[in-house]
Structure prediction request, 294 residues.
Amino acid sequence: MTATIIDGKAFAAKVRAQVAEHVQRLKDEHGLTPGLAVVLVGEDPASQVYVRSKGKQTVEVGMNSFEHKLPAETSEADLLALIEQLNADPAVHGILVQLPLPGHLDSDLVINAIDPAKDVDGFHISNVGLLGTGQKAMVPCTPLGCLMMLRDHHGSLSGMNAVVVGRSNIVGKPMAQLLLGDSCTVTIAHSRTRDLPDVLSRADIVVAAVGRPEMLRGEWLKPGATVIDVGINRIEGRNGLFGDCDFDSCAEVAGAITPVPGGVGPMTIACLLANTLTATCRANGLAEPQGLTA
Ligand code: NDP
Prediction:
């Protein structure tokens, strides 16, 4: 069997076009322009690339982009003061603090200072709780992107066996909550899981969020499974980016698979824009965009 490739790049372009259409409608009908504020502390090169890319795509869909670049030695008090200011600014509908923060700053404290209604990364403890209890939350962008691709591919996910490999707060745990919300039977695997191949052999859906290049092998999969590869890894001596799945062997057994690059990655920023749009609609008591939320 050769798997269908789930094209995240094309899907992300479709999501961005939908967002842009809604943004235009908000401008025309309500005089509203969604605004996303991104805060970057320090000079981490990967973070700088992400922030540039987020700013560019924000403007491309017609939103306002507010970038706040602060020196690495910024004090916690100054950072918290900026967040307070953004919380109070009616032109700002979404706030994202780029992680990781320099070591002297307490990430939990900073993230939990963001107004939950503007927390477009979905990392605030209130949003984590809302998602965990099946209430309307801001949902973390990467798992939201994975869910959108799965829904698009399968329609209903109800009753499917899903295995999420990885239990991080930003990917694994929220992914499992979302799959549960769509009535999957969910297993979360992690580094202490005994016999991962056996766990995977029953999975109709596999989401790999491990951070170990090419770890998951095709022989471990149930034939026809849908594989969402969240991993973004580098391998010394080889060019390019690699997923957590060994693509060639997995594509032989899976029914569908996301490539790396060009799978989950592009969906993450598209979902950030979708979340900013959702936050703008909620803040103004307007109907939320269909198909762009969990
Ligand atoms: P973390 O390092 O926070 O979590 C990794 C998880 O994998 C942990 O729960 C860990 O288990 C588990 N794990 C490690 N080794 C094994 C193993 N041998 N078998 C089973 N489970 C194992 O990573 P993130 O969740 O932040 O990211 C995961 C990957 O996704 C990375 O490659 C990252 O770059 C990528 N990523 C991609 C994004 C995108 O936009 N496409 C966004 C975010 C992340 P334990 O808890 O027991 O240690």
